[in-house]
Amino acid sequence: MSSAMTPAAGGGFSRLLERFGWAVAGIGLVAGLWFLASLWIASNPTTKTFTAFGLIPTLQAFPELWAAGKIQAAAAASGYRLGMGLLIAIAIGAPIGVLMGRIKWFNNFTNSPFQFVRMISPLAWMPLAVLVFSTWNGSIIFLIAIASVWPVMFATAAGLAKVDPAWFKVARNLGAKPWHMLTKVIMPAIMFDVLSGIRLALGVAWIVLVPAEYLGVTSGLGYAIEDARETLSYNHLTALVVTIGIIGYFLDGILVALIKRASWHRGGVA
Amino acid sequence: MAIRGTEIKIQGLTHRYTPRSPLTFNHIDLASPPGEALAIIGRSGCGKSTLLHILAGIHKPTEGRVLLDGTAITAPSPRWVMMFQAPHLFPWMTVSQNVGVGLSFGRWSKQKTEDRVKEAIKLVELEAWADNNVQDLSGGQQQRVALARSLVMEPELLLLDEPFSALDAFTRSSLQKDVRSIAKRKGFNIVFVTHDIDEAVIMGDRAVIMAGSPGNIVHELDIDLPDPRDRTDPSVQALRTRLMTMFQEAANYKKPESATLA
């Protein structure tokens, strides 16, 4: 694997530095606009009460929230729900996706109901979930799972549809058992697509998580935002919003790295 | 790791794809002694490729059987391995991993696997590429990897389905010589299907010509030439001409007792 990468590694460090530079510049631009906006809010008498939404107060809120353990606790609670929801989505979505990609009648049979259910907003399930699950945690995990199962399922099916049937013929010809077809052929062949699906699922799940936590629960990032609003701690509110962005950004980054590792396609897929 | 070849006996082999489709071929009998390289020549549609797939255990005959030293071929096995027209390598693997993939389906120790893979890669002269991703390789090199992937199983019978037809003339000719010399050194049998007369003369010990519909073996020719064989050699040329004449006769072949069809 590593030797196959060598041609791309030429000047790798300077390219990395360049990309890092662009990232810093981009984030700097957003921070600068925010800063200008906060100056304007502070100078305008009608909006003066919202000065705490500004960049500087927000940055000041981080150490406070961290010292109080609020960010850690909220991130842990949300992370647990997200992780469980995604795990369930993968455990259900990937095998069904494999069946959809491998068995034509199953795909025809399931396509319409799945496409139909997929189009129902995950949050529309909320009242139902609350009735069915005895705990808030349970219903939030359900919402995340039902939001993220579709991208995993459809990406897996699409990945399998691209698998060259000749690979199975070759493997069978060399004595592969059905188990080997799964572990040696299907899994490495579609890992890239499955991970791409998980990446999409993560994006959806992360979006669903926060509004789901606005209701009922007393932990998690969504709850912490609601809490900050009710106590009028505006800089805590913005700091938590930024925290959501940061965590989401890093989780996505991890998946991008995994996708790159699982990618065997040549010709600039990433 | 000298491999003893195997005695192939094809007995009364009949095939049709579905009960309603016409016969692909009808009652073929053919035998090949241990270590022989047998060429099956014919135009497309004569059933030669189907015959090869039955020999590989990929297709099943409608009637008749194939015996390998007395064992009936009913399914694929590492003892009889087929090499296809295209290499069909696993693109997420290195050359070594692709070559060793068949061993990973069985119970082989890590050391034994490594040794065998190394030897097979050496046979096809790809030592320098062992750790490269197969997508770095040219078409000819990829087909060499596919050859090594078959050889690593140490089959008694190697089946080749027009394996070099997609390659350029130079690569094709060097692979033809390599396959023959490896097979002769190791002692395993080859059965290969081709529509290329040259390939039959360079690689085969014997050629059979299939023709007609349903297909049948209409001619047979011993290719009794010393190794290494050179295309420009007059004796090779002479045999090539004979085989070509037979092939053309076969093209006009009509099965005399067409009663079997009705």
Q: What structural class should be given to the helix and strand makeup of chain B?
A: alpha/beta
Report the CATH architecture of the largest domain in chain A. Answer: Orthogonal Bundle
Assign a percent range to the helix content of chain B: 25-40%
Oligomer: heterodimer
How would a textbook summarize the main sheet of chain A? none
Return the structural class of chain A: mainly alpha
The CATH topology of the domain at 8-79 and 155-260 in chain B turns out to be Rossmann fold
The CATH topology of the largest domain in chain A is what? Answer: MetI-like fold
* CATH domain class name of the domain at 8-79 and 155-260 in chain B: Alpha Beta
First and last CA, distance of chain B: 51 Å
Number of β-strand runs of chain B:
10
Number of helices of chain B: 8
The level of helicity of chain A is over 70%
The CATH architecture name of the domain at 8-79 and 155-260 in chain B reads 3-Layer(aba) Sandwich
Radius of gyration of chain B: 19 Å
- Outline the low-pLDDT stretches of chain A: 1-9
**Major sheet strand order of chain B:** 6-7-8-3-9-10
Number of strands of chain A: 0
Separate helix tally of chain A? 11
CATH class of the largest domain in chain A: Mainly Alpha
* Average pLDDT of chain B: 87
